[in-house]
């Protein structure tokens, strides 16, 4: 009985240790897929009434990534919309893919270590949760700047120097950042996507592409600070 209990405990521990590693491996895989699509420039893409599956497969081959199209989502696309006619030159694989899926009304998602092309509803449901520490953006550093003195012209009868007091910078609060995120980034906020504030940190639950936009927005706020 003791040996069986020890074995069960070992299996449980292995499971607990492996789970985060697998999640991390998936995240690294998704970053690699995006990097490949962003760094691959295709000299020419030319199609004359080609099926969208052929076009996506060609882009995936040129960028050396795996892209899977959701068959059920594709069935809901009008037959005429699936026929692609276009010609692109010197285009990034990611931009080419975005152009194609925009034409057919589908969206990118990540699942099981691969890039999926699926419906908007399924893409919105595929969410991950990340924590963003924004205390470096909201912190207020008091440096007590001194006023500037300017001497008035001799013919000025009011006398005395002109004192310009520095304007106080507008303080960015956590709620302001949440409002900016929800107003400028498209997602199902209040539904499948959410932003929660805990001790100066943002807990964001959203699709992976939304997280990228959130990170970009926070970087812009840091640069402007």
In short:
The chain has 225 residues and is of the alpha+beta class.
Task: Characterize the structure shown.
This protein has helices at 2-39, 52-63, 71-75, 93-104, 120-125, 135-138, 174-184, 208-224, and strands spanning 41-51, 67-69, 83-92, 107-111, 114-118, 127-133, 148-150, 162-164, 194-198, 201-207. Helix 2 (52-63) packs antiparallel against helix 4 (93-104). The radius of gyration is 26 Å and the shape is elongated. 47% of the residues lie in helices and 26% in strands. A hairpin with a 2-residue loop joins strand 9 (194-198) and strand 10 (201-207). The chain folds into two domains: 37-125, 3-Layer(bab) Sandwich (Phage tail protein beta-alpha-beta fold); 127-224, no CATH class. It is built from eight helices and ten strands. 17% of the residues are buried.
Strand content: 25-35%
Write down the overall geometry. Answer: elongated
Mind describing the biggest β-sheet?
3 strands, mixed
How many separate helices? Answer: 8
- Residues in helix, %: 40-55%
Give the H and E element order. HEHEHEHEEHEHEEHEEH
User: What structural class do helix, strand and pairing data support?
Assistant: alpha+beta
Q: What is the number of E strands? A: 10
Describe the strand arrangement of the main beta sheet, using strand numbers. Answer: 2-5-4
Whole-number radius of gyration?
26 Å
What is the count of structural domains? Answer: 2
Kindly report how far apart the N and C termini lie. Answer: 63 Å
Overall residue-averaged pLDDT value: 79
Low-pLDDT residue spans: 3-24
